[in-house]
Every structure is written in structure tokens, then in C-alpha cells.
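Customer escalation, tier 2.

The customer says the design service returned an amino acid string that "doesn't look like it belongs to this structure." They asked us to rerun it and document both sides in this ticket. The original C-alpha cells are below, unchanged.
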């Protein structure tokens, strides 16, 4: 039986990064992965790479270019005629990015001498050497390892009784692969996937209606951001209905008919050619045989872990979407690195208060730290500064005047507690805020740091200065 120092189950961002870091630290490492792409080929990279972050961002970029070329280049004085979209080509581009990156992980595995155990991994007890992991693949085998890192990720949550065929009724997998633009697209759930993928198909010409159960829009965002986002997204043409209760859904080969009750209690129906169900994700622990090593999932299906991703069993760790915390690729990656370093005897930690969030709509939304409503609920005294992109020369030059940066700081110490951005390139700008918060910077620190001119990042400095009522361009 082959022996390892570490076996990682799952090669998504949490798993493959954990494997790479373990190997860098000199540990003999294997990674079990069973993912097969639609063509039947085994592939590394997990949800994020195959049907998540990477393909969705590729389609967001393609559709944004299309919308810009069709409708917004005229603002620059550019006339473009006969713009059309080749959907198969757009999908091929997306697929080739996915394939390139997946092959990139195979290269990293070879470079770092990580063994890819191809198949489904599950626990098979312990022996004197360590933990047994059975791999059901074309060549079934059982290996033994001193440590196991579970990184099995998550799957889309489905509505009870509604079959997802990924043709008419789709989760993220189908919604990333429509072979044509639906005329009418229904989306259940106005969360991150609903807004990102709803935006993709709206930009390409679909009439998109999003039905959301909660009465509030983007409740995890700062209230000022969610209000601005609702105004901008509905202005772009997304029909967003909040506070609905989904009733009966009938499907046929031509589409879906969704009965729902609106926020006034009135019965409504939505007819659509295709329906995306994006109502959250559930941790994937199916067939792991956790009981073989004395583990069990919690009430919501997650594997219980402490702040260091240690399970209740020595030598067994769990990272990424399969454990508590935000279901974000970079959170999983950081947990993977932390666990690898723990196994190697180092003393890493993660500051869970400093994990940035991004929603890749247009404009983008990004934040790190506390929202204003959280600070109010916590009874914490704070100051707030806000600066609009409409007063930023670079944003105007780029024809992107929408949105703002908002900085929240402790009233007494002025330490930054949260930064909230809605605007172009918010995904990149938020990194400055994360660095500042990790270094416990005050708003004054940001206000005093020289920022390049003209740049979007000046809005971060100005919002920090606005806390002291001394923004220079407002
Ligand atoms: P996963 O990526 O889910 O990988 C788990 C892997 O484990 C899979 O490959 C699976 O096949 C494998 N596996 C499971 N069980 C077994 C087993 N028993 N044996 C062998 N292999 C097994 N996050 C962001 O931060 N930014 C984004 O822009 C973003 N966009 C997203 C867009 C979409 C459409 C979706 C669906 C998600 C998006 N996410 C994004 C979330 C992100 O994809 C997840 O947080 C991330 O993939 C979690 O990583 P993970 O390694 O924990 O699990
Ligand atoms: P989500 O949790 O972001 O949003 C789900 C939405 O569906 C919520 O607003 C919820 O209230 C609503 N909902 C739940 N049940 C409903 C029902 N029965 N009827 C109507 N509405 C209902 O989940 P989503 O969009 O599926 O994404 C899953 C996760 O994937 C995200 O939470 C995030 O962690 C990750 N992700 C991250 C991205 C990013 O970082 N840019 C992009 C896409 C996904």
C-alpha cells in the first residue's frame, strides 16, 4: 500500500493549493480527484475552474465587450455597425481558458511531484501507519497517509421537486453553457450567481427576470451599496422582484412556467425559455464515509472544524466550501496553505475578518470587513467617508462614472473597519483595503499615502479623507 504524508481529497482551489503548498514544504503528497468534464475527460481544478469562477468571468468579459461595443462606444465618438455575437465561439473561448488552466494544474502537480489519484476518494478506516483512503477509479486502490485534507467543495442547491436537466432548468453548470441566447430567462435567487449570470445573458439580449425570496436586496452588502446596485442593475434592464414566494413550477421541452406570490401577496406567473436556479450551494460530503474515521457532518452538512481547519480527528483537516465561512475560492486557498503549513509544523493563521468579497457585475461590487449595519448592530462607534466615481477623472475618462467608495473607521482609533466599493475595477481596488486592514491602518494612513493620478484608486484615498471632512475633490 502506497504511503503518503498528505492525501488531499478534491482538487478545487482549496485542495490543489493545499497539495502544492504541502509539496513545497517537502511532504509526500497525493490528491484524489474524480471530476469529469462533459467530454468525459478527467480534470483538475474543481468547481472554481470548471464550472465556477473562471468560466463565469470569461463569459462576463465577453458579454461586457459585446454590450460596450453595441451601446457604449458611441460615447467615445466611435461608430460601430453590424455588431453580432457568435455564441459558439464565445463558449469555445471560455472552454479553452478552462482547459488551459486545468492543464496548468496538471503541470503544477508534475512540477511539485504530487500524485494525482484518479477517482472518487473515501475514508476506509485507520491502520498503524495512518488514515486509509480508498480510491474508486479505473484502477481502484487504497492508500495510507499520516494526514488527510478534505477539500471536496460544494454542489448547487436545487429546489425540492424540480429536476435540473441543465437544458431548460439549469444550475451554474447549464447556465454557463447555453448554446443560444434565451429570449426570456428566469432566475430564482438574486444572489451572486443570479446577478453575474443574469447579467451575462441580459447583455447578450435575453429579457431577464430574477425572483428573490428575501425582501432585501444583497443583504450581505453595505446598505448604501445594495441600494445603489439595485438602482443601477434595474436601470440596466434586469427585472428583479424581491420578497416572492415560489410556488409550482411546470416545465416542458420549450420552457418553464413559474407560479409565485409577489411581495404584495398577489399570485403571479413567469414564463421563460430557460430557468437558472441559483439559491446557494451545499457542502459535498456524499460518499466520503466520514463515519469510518469517527467524523460526522453538522446540521447544515458542513464538516465541523476549528479556526485552524482541524476536524475532531487527529491528522484529518477540512478546507474550502466543505467547512464554515464564505464559499469563496480565495478563502479556500488560504485555508489550504494554512493547513499545509500546520502539518509542516509552522504557526500560520487566517484573519477571517479580512476576506474580501467581489461580485463581478458591471459595475463591480467589492468589500472587506464590516458593513455599516453590522457596526450599528454591534453598537460600535464609527465614522464614515464616501467618495463618488463621478468626481474621479480617470473614471470619467473610462466612461464609468457609476458608484462610489465608502470607508468605515473606528470613531476613536480611526482604524479601518470596512471598505465598500461599487464601481469599475472594484475587484482590484479592494486589495488595497485588505492590505490596509491586515496592517491595522487608520483611515488617515490611506489619506496620507500618495496614490497615482489619474487613477480609480484616488477614490479610496478621497473616501478616507472624507471621514475627516477633507476630501480634496468633493
Ligand atoms: P470545489 O472547487 O468545489 O472543488 C472540490 C473538488 O473536489 C471537485 O473537483 C470535486 O470533483 C472533488 N471531489 C468531491 N468529492 C470528491 C471525492 N469524494 N473524491 C474525489 N474528488 C472529490 N468564488 C470566488 O472566490 N470568486 C468567484 O468569482 C466565484 N465565482 C463562482 C461562480 C460560480 C458560477 C460558482 C458556482 C462558484 C463561484 N465561486 C467563486 C465559488 C468557488 O467556486 C468556490 O468557493 C470554490 O470552488 C470552492 O473551492 P473548493 O476547493 O472548496 O471546492
Ligand atoms: P447566494 O447565497 O449568493 O444567493 C442565493 C439567493 O437565493 C439568496 O439571495 C437567497 O435569499 C435566494 N433564495 C434562496 N432560496 C430561495 C427560494 N426558494 N426562492 C427564491 N430565492 C431564494 O447563492 P448563489 O448565487 O447560488 O451562489 C452560491 C455561492 O457561490 C455564493 O454564496 C458564493 O459563495 C459563491 N459565488 C461567488 C461568486 C463571487 O465570488 N463572485 C460568484 C458566484 C458564486
Amino acid at each position: 500500500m502506497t504511503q503518503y504524508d498528505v492525501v488531499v481529497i478534491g482538487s478545487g482551489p482549496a485542495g490543489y493549493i493545499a497539495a502544492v503548498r504541502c509539496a513545497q514544504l517537502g511532504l509526500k503528497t497525493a490528491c484524489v480527484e474524480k471530476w469529469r468534464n462533459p467530454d468525459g475527460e478527467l480534470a483538475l481544478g474543481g468547481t472554481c475552474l470548471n464550472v465556477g469562477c473562471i468560466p463565469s468571468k470569461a463569459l462576463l468579459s465577453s458579454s461586457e465587450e459585446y454590450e460596450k461595443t453595441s451601446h457604449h462606444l458611441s460615447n467615445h465618438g466611435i461608430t460601430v455597425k453590424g455588431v453580432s455575437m457568435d455564441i459558439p465561439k464565445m463558449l469555445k473561448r471560455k472552454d479553452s481558458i478552462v482547459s488551459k488552466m486545468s492543464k496548468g494544474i496538471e503541470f503544477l502537480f508534475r512540477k511539485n511531484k504530487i500524485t494525482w489519484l484518479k477517482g472518487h476518494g473515501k475514508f476506509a478506516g485507520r491502520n498503524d501507519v495512518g488514515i486509509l483512503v480508498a480510491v474508486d477509479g479505473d484502477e481502484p486502490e487504497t492508500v495510507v497517509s499520516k494526514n488527510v485534507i478534505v477539500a471536496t467543495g460544494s454542489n448547487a442547491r436545487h429546489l425540492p421537486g424540480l429536476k435540473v436537466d441543465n437544458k431548460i432548468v439549469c444550475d451554474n453548470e447549464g447556465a454557463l453553457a447555453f448554446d443560444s441566447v434565451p429570449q426570456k430567462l428566469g432566475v430564482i435567487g438574486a444572489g451572486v450567481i443570479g446577478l453575474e449570470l443574469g447579467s451575462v445573458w441580459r447583455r447578450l439580449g435575453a429579457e431577464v427576470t430574477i425572483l428573490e425570496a428575501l425582501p432585501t436586496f444583497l443583504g450581505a452588502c453595505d446598505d448604501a451599496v445594495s441600494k445603489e446596485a439595485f438602482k443601477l442593475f434595474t436601470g440596466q434592464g434586469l427585472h428583479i422582484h424581491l420578497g416572492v414566494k415560489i410556488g409550482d413550477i411546470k416545465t416542458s421541452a420549450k420552457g418553464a412556467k413559474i407560479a409565485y406570490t409577489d411581495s404584495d401577496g398577489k399570485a403571479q406567473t413567469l414564463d421563460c425559455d430557460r430557468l437558472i436556479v441559483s439559491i446557494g450551494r451545499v457542502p459535498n460530503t456524499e460518499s466520503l464515509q466520514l463515519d469510518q474515521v469517527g467524523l460526522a457532518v453538522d446540521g447544515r452538512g458542513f464538516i465541523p472544524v476549528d479556526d485552524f481547519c482541524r476536524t475532531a480527528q487527529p491528522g484529518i483537516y477540512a478546507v474550502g466550501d466543505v467547512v464554515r465561512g464564505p464559499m469563496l475560492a480565495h478563502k479556500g486557498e488560504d485555508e489550504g496553505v494554512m493547513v499545509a503549513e500546520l502539518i509542516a509544523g509552522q504557526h500560520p493563521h487566517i484573519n477571517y475578518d479580512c476576506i474580501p468579497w467581489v461580485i463581478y457585475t458591471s459595475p463591480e461590487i467589492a468589500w472587506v470587513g464590516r458593513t455599516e449595519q453590522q457596526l450599528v448592530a454591534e453598537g460600535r462607534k464609527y465614522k464614515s467617508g464616501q467618495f463618488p466615481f463621478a468626481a474621479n477623472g480617470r473614471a470619467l475618462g473610462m466612461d464609468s462614472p457609476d458608484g462610489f467608495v465608502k470607508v468605515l473607521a473606528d470613531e476613536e482609533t480611526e482604524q479601518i473597519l470596512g471598505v465598500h466599493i461599487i464601481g469599475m475595477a472594484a475587484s482590484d481596488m479592494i486589495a488595497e483595503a485588505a492590505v490596509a486592514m491586515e496592517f491595522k491602518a487608520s483611515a488617515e494612513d490611506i489619506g496620507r499615502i500618495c496614490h497615482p493620478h489619474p487613477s480609480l484608486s484616488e477614490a479610496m484615498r478621497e473616501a478616507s479623507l472624507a471621514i475627516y471632512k477633507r476630501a480634496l475633490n468633493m
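Tier 2 assessment: The sequence is consistent with the input. The first strand starts at residue 3 and ends at 9. Residues 9-15, 32-35, 46-48, 52-53, 56, 120-122, 151-154, 172, 193, 284, 288, 320-321, 327-330, 332, 360 surround flavin-adenine dinucleotide (ligand 1) (CB under 6 Å). Sent an explanation to the customer and offered a walkthrough call.
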